[in-house]
Amino acid sequence: MRPIRPEDAGEVLTLQRAAFVQEALIYGSPEMPPLTQTLEELEAELAENLGCVALAGHRIVGAVRAQRDGELLLVGRLAIAPDQQGRGLGTTLLAAVEERGANEGATEAELFTGSLSEANLRLYQREGYVETERVPGDDGTEQVFLRKPLVR
To answer: For residues 77 and 41, is the Cβ–Cβ distance under 8 A?
Structure first.
């Protein structure tokens, strides 16, 4: 586990696309931002980011991004390599990014997922996130926003 870096962009983008294919199948659309994001967009995003990556040897097998907005840590794009899912990496990455955010002054974390992403919702709720809002989408699903207080 280590902080995410701009030079990780290529490998993180590959990982992100592999991880989000299952989500695209659930929602019936390949036009999801994690699948359409460009390398240049990701490089710019990683220039100032509190995210983390999980490593197996030299390979990045998990990644999460986060940015602080005042006292709020905005967590996004948690992605685990398909062959590494179910091993606790999501939990480990969330804990690492929450710690980084708390150390930078954030007092609460927020993330969102789609209403059909049942495994994601279970993970977030198991890790202490509480649903705060549902925003209707154009496709009949909802974006589910969840928050969790951070402890230093």
So the answer is: no
Length of the chain: 152
In tens, the pLDDT along 125-141 reads 999 999 999 999 877 78
Contact 80, 19 (CB under 8 A): yes
How far is CA 86 from its chain centroid? 16
Alpha-carbon span 80 to 40, nearest angstrom: 21
pTM of the entire structure? 0.90
Tokens at 120, concatenated: 């994601």
Locate all alpha helices (DSSP H) within 47-117, ordered by sequence.
89-103
3-state DSSP assignment of residue 121: helix
- Picking from 107, 11, 108, 12, the residue whose alpha carbon sits closest to that of residue 51 is 12
How far apart are the C-alpha atoms of 120 and 23, rounded to whole Å? 10
Cβ contacts of 51 within 8 Å, gap of 6 or more: 3, 4, 63, 64, 65, 66, 97
